[in-house]
Amino acid sequence: MKKSILLLTLLSLFFVGCSSTPIIEAPKPSDPFASDSDDDKDLDLASLRDSNNILSKRSIYFDYDKDVVKAEYKDLAAAHAKYIVAHPKAKMTLTGNTDDRGSREYNLSLGQRRSVSVKKSMNIIGAQDSQIETVSFGEERADTNCKDDACHGKDRRVDISYEKE
């Protein structure tokens, strides 16, 4: 008899405790494929496509076997950094590339170091890590018919692309 009263009391306390705890619904995840025109307006996509705007330039080139952003491309990196600082909903991908010289593993590593180097230069200006993804294709996109350094130089780059573009 005492056990049943004790069990009944504990169950009552349990149910009372549950009934007084408010249920908070988790926010519904947004549909990544849905088009939100207000977000697109906030991103000012026209400035990214305007050929007279520095933001239309999307490649940063590197010297052979180097991952340091050259002085001539610092303004380009800064312009893209300022854009994503001004547009917090914007997200970009920095894709590191190399020429086809060197091993596959080394080139993947070099491509990643190049994309991270550009990201760090953007972070200095205020770009958030959450807005920038870095990827390396290594030599996957290299022109295998190159015979001179000018041709190979086109492969040594980081390409900038935006998510909603």
Account of the protein in words:
This protein is an alpha+beta fold and 165 residues long. It has a domain at 61-165: 60s Ribosomal Protein L30, Chain: A (2-Layer Sandwich), CATH 3.30.1330. It has 6 helices and 4 strands, in the order αααβαβαβαβ. The longest helix has 22 residues, at 104-125. It is elongated, with a radius of gyration of 26 Å. It starts with a helix and ends with a strand.
Give the helices and strands, then pairings:
Elements: H1 2-19, H2 37-43, H3 45-49, E1 59-61, H4 74-86, E2 92-97, H5 104-125, E3 132-138, H6 149-155, E4 157-162
Parallel strand pairs: 2-3
Antiparallel strand pairs: 1-4, 2-4
Helix pairs in contact: 4-5
CATH topology of one domain: 60s Ribosomal Protein L30, Chain: A
The tally of strands reads 4
Instruction: Give the N-terminus to C-terminus distance in angstroms.
Output: 72 Å
The chain-level structural class is alpha+beta
Portion in strands:
5-15%
Assign the CATH architecture of one domain. 2-Layer Sandwich
Spatial sequence of strands, sheet with the most strands = 1-4-2-3
Order of helices and strands: HHHEHEHEHE
Total helical elements: 6
CATH class identity of one domain: Alpha Beta
- Rounded to the nearest angstrom, the radius of gyration is 26 Å
Would you identify the CATH H-level superfamily of one domain? OmpA-like domain
Low confidence ranges: 26-37
Major sheet size, sense and barrel closure: 4 strands, mixed
* Helical content class: 40-55%
Q: Oligomeric status of the shown chains?
A: single chain
pLDDT averaged residue by residue:
84
Shape type: elongated
